[in-house]
Structures are given as structure tokens and as C-alpha cells.
Sequence to fold (905 residues):
Amino acid sequence: MKKSNQASERGRLGGWYWTLGSLALLALAWLLPASGIMNLYLQQVLMYVGINIILTLSLNLVNGYMGEFSVGHAGFMAVGAYVAAILTVAVFPRAWGPVVFPLALIMGGLAAALAGLVVAFPSFRTRGDYLAIVTLAFNMIVKSILENINAVGGPRGYMGMSKLSNLVWVVFWVLVTLLVLRNVIYSNLGRGIIAIREDELAANLVSVNTPRLKIYAFCLSAFFAGVAGGLYAHLLQFINPRSFSILKSTDMLVMVYLGGIGSLAGSILGASLYTILMELLRPLELWRWVVGPLLLVLLMIFRPTGIMGLKEVRWLQPTASEETGWGKVARRS
Amino acid sequence: MMALLEVTNISHTFGGLQALADFNVTLNDGDLVGLIGPNGAGKTTVFNLISGVYRPDQGRIVFAGQDITLWPSYRRMAAGMSRTFQNIRLFKDMSVLDNVRLGAFAHYTYSFWQIVGRTASFHLQERRLTQEALAMLARFGLAGSAQAPARNLSYGEQRRLEIARALISRPKLLLLDEPAAGMNQAETLELVALLRDLHREFALTIMLIEHHMGVVLDLCQRVQVLDFGSTIFAGNPQEAQQHPQVLEAYLGKEENGEHGHAIAEP
Amino acid sequence: MSCPVAIALQYLLNALQLGSVYALIALGYSMVYGILTMINFAHGDIFMVGAYLAMWATLFLLGLPLNLPIIFIFLGSLLFTMTLTAALGVSIERLAYRPLRQAPKVSAVITALGVGLFLENFTLATIGPEPRQVPAIIPVQQYSWGGVAFTNVQLLILVVSLILMVLLDTLVRRTLTGMAMRAISYNRVIVPLMGVSVDRIISLTFAIGSAIAGAGGLLYGLAYPVLDPYMGIRIGWWAFIAAVVGGIGNIRGAVLGGYVLGTVEIFTPVLLASSTYRDSVAFSMLLILLIFKPTGLLGRPTVEKV
Ligand SMILES: Nc1ncnc2c1ncn2[C@@H]1O[C@H](COP(=O)(O)OP(=O)(O)OP(=O)(O)O)[C@@H](O)[C@H]1O
Ligand SMILES: [Mg+2]
Fold:
């Protein structure tokens, strides 16, 4: 991954670049639509790309970095989407919408994180295909429960949300997800999570508290999937249980394994490529849905770790000074 | 004085196979004890039971005054125990540095919010950990490959990295499972010297599984000999070599051509 | 139809009918798992393809100006469906699973999910999303016995399933091929030494499992004559749960599990007064089972060697 101390230092970006870069992106996300340079369709596509980046990053934490196996991630997205939507539609006064939107997203994320526990506990004892069943079953239970609650529309779905998602919020949450996951991955916690993927038994035997880390990883991952769900609900302004079926979970898997497991840059790449590809294939109508599964199978056979596979671009790694704190600590003392 | 490790009457079976029966051992601070026996005698099983990979069917394990029999592995390790593996188990796709840093996982417990916020305390701890890890790598002659993935190391280097990973947590008890396996004569002698130094320098208590009798004779104050899961001898290593039951255990196997390590091997 | 015993018997009969279909599909999950320790998530979709193939075969045979006897149409459709689904199963194994036999488990599971989804969406794209009506091959005749009503179709489903299950059980327990199958599921490393072609046995396992699922598709179409491309997901999952309940890898267990799940599906609406909760009930059952017995009811626990 890293070559040598000196080489790896070059090209990495410190805190200032991040702050400036993020501000610039947010400004663009506001300016381009506001000035009319970017049309509505393009905005819409970019928002889908952003939401998919959040989902892919979130799933990559569990499947790519931790090497565990969630194939029912749409379940978490559903929890976040419904909770956030109910909050803005039925709980808070409508006029407060734009103000409470971030709060609703966070609450949706927290609810999803709570649901993450449902999957985290079985993962203490189960791995591989049996954990896959647990997560799929979770996905189906969530869907089935939503179909049975009439208050949220049952199988007909839930609507009435204002279009509160905009490009600025989407970009903001992409940046938050990216930053949080990057900071987690390049820390003791992240090393422990990767150690679970490499050799769970050995991880336990070098004092890594694997059950606790699994809870962290599943809840954090579910949180961001929930936030993405909230953004999705307030972009489409209509959600129904079928939007969060296994088909959605499979889309996320395709994006993770296309871009590359265990890689932040890979997640961004995979989500962008797949979303845009599906957009370009729209004229194929129903045949479009054959592409994703086929791509997934081909990837597994020919390149199971994806385009970036376990590699990270420099500018997403913390600088050595940040990683070890040389600079900051020296400045403070 | 209280013993560091007190193992009382532990047994373990796999399916119908009795891998270990009524095993006892007491280690005091600073002991360096060898555990020997023919292939399949149950030596690794002893380590697996002490480190919590398996739960014993019966018996009790007390470590540093606490009954740890039912503790999960990570908690035992956090309490001051470390081990290496007969078949090297490194985190192969992670860097050498990360492997060592993981050894001290339980000792660095900055909170989630400190991680996300990259606070001064996070940086301070991360810096201390990295410095310690680099120092430890230097001690084992691995500083040059700190950033390389562990899978790129040679076999001997991987063995040393495992010991470095085990030592960075400053354990009280170190369990070494055949550290010299696959090493040549020169490497083995080097390892023996290194272990002797480390034992003194880190005030370690060591339990060592080893097939090279030379290593055991050189290092260990006491040995315990296992055969078919039972202890057939416990005491002075020189005496062990003369003990009829021990000789029979090794030589009896020898005739079947099943056992490669003669007791007289250097 | 007033005596409670008769009503219970009536439900039981329905449970047996549905359970037979689940059992037939569960067998395929179990056989493949037994031999490859891999969950073939595409299996439910092979069943779906089987149901469509059976429908087309029947339509074709009915359309011929020969006025064939019913029994001939039924057996012809059955043979056609089982042959083609067997071929489908074998091709899937060859093209998608075999290249991954040495790869990590994760890759194989994801591939299986991908193949399943491919079959669904491919079917959807070729024939469209509208549900299809299966033609009635057999004129339904109602019988009644002691207050319990049943039809000739129900009897046919029960009898054909039973015949297939007994045949399979005999094959696995009594023949050399069956012995090889059991040997591979016991130890894949030593079997090649004994002169058995592992690849051939694995192909055969997929062929048999898929053929039986195809037969399940035909029988399902007789009893519940509306087909849609996504029907394999739900039925497949219920059958999979059946296989897990019975102890995946265990053939008789799969049959037992099928009937248990059939009973759960028929009796849940009766007991909970609502039919929409049955999926939640089944999946919760699965979750609880996996949490307390992660390797399944009869699955062998594995100990990692350190
Ligand atoms: N996970 C396991 N499952 C089944 N049997 C096992 C397992 N681990 C060990 N055994 C058996 O238990 C017995 C003792 O094994 P153990 O690994 O403790 O021997 P050992 O003394 O370390 O041998 P070696 O010198 O070969 O390392 C052996 O017969 C071995 O085959
Ligand atoms: Mg051993």
C-alpha cells in the first residue's frame, strides 16, 4: 500500500487542503445550480451519484475493510429513509422543513445505527454465508414490516415530503462520510477493523476487542446508509418498501466490488461509474437491469477486489504528520 | 509470592480425541519454561487453552490473580499476555508497522470522538504508539521494511515480526509456539540470544514450545514433557533427556518414521 | 365443513401441498450445500424458470392438433422442464461457480446472488413484467371425504413430489453415484484419490437439484397458476429457510423442513388473523435459529485449527 516513508509523504494532503477543498466543492454545489449553469437533470444525476457514494462508502466499511458480509444494506437505508421522512412530514411543522432537515437526517441515521445492532450481534458468532443470510433476512424483515404498517402507507408507500435534498446537502454528507471514515480507518480502531478481515482469530489474540469493533463498524455503516436513505427520500419525495428490496442491496454490492474493496477512492469511483452507466443505459429500458447482475458476476470471476482493490490514492491518506501527530503536537507544545 | 500463571487440571477433547488431559503448570515471575513432546502431543493445545482460543472442558486458569478460564481471548491479552503462532499468523495485507501497532491495541483507547475529531490527545497517543512500534521494529532489525506489507517479508523476518508484535504490549507472559521452526542453525542461534536478552530486558515470563532440543537446553530452567495429552515429565531439562518415559515417547515414534525431531538434535 | 377437526385437516392438506413444493426446492439447496458448502442463492430462480418452461411446454402441447391425452401432456411437460432446468443448473455451475471454487467464500456467495438476479431480470426483460396465467392441463375435480375437500390436482402434487423424493433418497443412499456425492460432501480432498471425478459429481448434483426444482415449478403452476419473474425470490427464500430448518446438507431434513414451512405459511394467517405477517414470521424464525445455532440445526460445527 505505502512504499516508503518519504515517497508516501508526497501527494498526501494535510488538514488545510481538506478544509479548502471541501469549501470549494460546497460552493460549487451551490453556485452551479443557483446560477443556472447546471440544469435540473444533471443536478438530479449528481445527487444520485452522491447518495450512492455515501452508500458505497458505508457498505465498504463492513464488506471491504472488515471483510464481514452484509448483503442487506438496503434495510438500513429504508430505516433511515422512513424515519427522516416521517419526521419532516408528520412530526415537525412543515414550515420548519429546511431547518430541521439535517436533524431529521441524523435521527434517521441513528435509527438505522440502532438497527445495525440487530446484525452486529449475530456477527459475533457467524461469518461468511451465514452472516449473509442474517443480513438478507434483516433486509426482508424490514421490508415486510414496512409493508404491514398502514400508518406509513403499507405497500403503497409514503409520500408528502418536500424536496429538501439539494446538491449542497448531498455534497456536504458525502464529505462528512468520507472524512469520518478516513479518520476511523487511519486509527487504532480502523487497524483493528482491517485486522478482523485479515485474520479474525489472530486479531482476538493481539487484544483486539472484535465484538466491540463489529458493533462500531456495523452501526457506523448503518448510520451513513440511513442518512443516505433520508437524502433519497427527500429527493424522490416518495418512498415505498419495494425501493429497499434486495435489488437495491445488490446495486450497492456492485458499486463496492466494481470500485474496489477496502478503498475510499474505489467507493467514489465505483458509485460514480455505476450510477452514470445506469443513467446512460436508460434507453435499454428493462434490459438495463440485466447489466448490474451480469457485471457483478463477471467482476467476481475476473477481478474480485475491484478496480482499486485494497489500494488508496494518496490524497485520501492522512499525511504522516497527521497520522503520527508530529506536526500538531509540536505546534501545541 | 503469588504465581503469575496457575493452570490447574485443564483437559480438552476434539470430538472423541483427548488432546490434553489434566494438565498443570505454575509459572512465577521471570520463569522461562519449555514445553516439549512429540508431534500431536498437545503442546499447541495448551497455548490455545491459556490464550482462550478454546475453552477447557474442565480445570481452571488463573492469571495475575484473576480467574480467566471463561474470558475471551482479547481480554486475556489485554491483561498482560501475548503469544505467537506455530503457523505464522500475521495480518498479511497490512504494513509491517501496522502489524506491530496492532499488538498494542488494548493499550490505546482514545474514544471514537477523539478519532473522528483528530484531537491533540489522539495525535499524542498515535505518535507515541508509532514511535514505540518503530523502536521495536528496529530492535528486531525490521525498521527498513516498516511500510512494506507483511506478506513481502522473508520467513525468518515474519517470525521476528510476530515476536515484535507480541512484545509491543509489554506483556508479563509470553507464549512462544516453535519460534525457531524453519530457521537454519545461524538464525536459530541468533534467536536464542535475542530471546535471552528480551527475557531480561522486558522482565518477561516465557513459556516456549520448541522441537530443537538445543534451544530448550540453552534457554529453559524447567521443561514439561507431553505425550498423547498427558504430562510424562516435569523438571530439569538435562534430566528430561535421561528420563526413560521421555526417551520412549520420542524414540517409539521415531521407529514409525513419523517423527522428524530427535531429542538429541542440536 | 363445520367440525373443527375437519377444518384443521383441510388446512393440513393445504400445508402438505405447499410444503411439497418447498421441499422439492429445499432439496436442491441442501444437495449443493452438502457438496460445495455453498449457498446457491440462484436456486429459487431456477424454480421460477422451471415454472415458465412448464407453462410454455403445456401451451405448446395443448396447441398441437393431436388431441393428446392429459397424462401425456403432463409427463411431456414434466420431462421437458426437468431436462431444461437441469441444463440451466449445470451451465450456471460451469460458467459462474466453477471458476470461483478456490476463491474466498464471499466471491461465491455474491456471484450466486448475481446469477439469481440475472435470471430474474433477464426473464423480466424478455417476457415483460405482467403476471402470466398457467393453462389448466387437468380439469379440476373436487372430492370430499368426511367434510374435507380436496382436488385431483392436490393429490397429483402430493404423489408426484413423494415419488421424486423417494427416487432421490434411493439414489443418494443406494447407488454408487450417491455414495460418491456423500463422500465428496464428507471430504473433497480424498475423493479424487479414489478415482471419482469431482467435477462430474458436482455437475450431476446441480443437474438433479435443478431438475427437481423445475418439477417443483411445474407443480406450483398447477396449484397457484399465476407466474411472475420475481416469484422465485419469495418461494426460494422460504424453501431455503426450510433447508436450514431441516439442517442444510441433510436431504431428509430438507423434506421435513419443507413441510414445516408449509405448515407455518398456512397456519400463520389462521393464528395471527392476518396473512401479511407470514414473511416476518418465517424470517424471524430463521434469524433466531441462526443466532442460537449458527451452523443450522443439523449442520456440523467447524473448529478452526490454530
Ligand atoms: N482444531 C482441531 N480439531 C481436531 N483435532 C485437533 C485440533 N487441533 C488439534 N487437534 C488434535 O489434537 C492433538 C494435539 O494437537 P496439538 O496441535 O496440540 O499438538 P502439538 O503438540 O502442538 O503438535 P505439533 O508438534 O505437531 O505442533 C493432535 O492429535 C491434533 O491432531
Ligand atoms: Mg503445535
Q: What stands out?
A: Residues 254-266 of chain B have pLDDT under 50 and may be disordered. The two ends of chain B are 36 Å apart (CA to CA). DSSP finds ten helices and ten strands in chain B. Residues 4 and 64 of chain B are 5 Å apart (CA to CA).
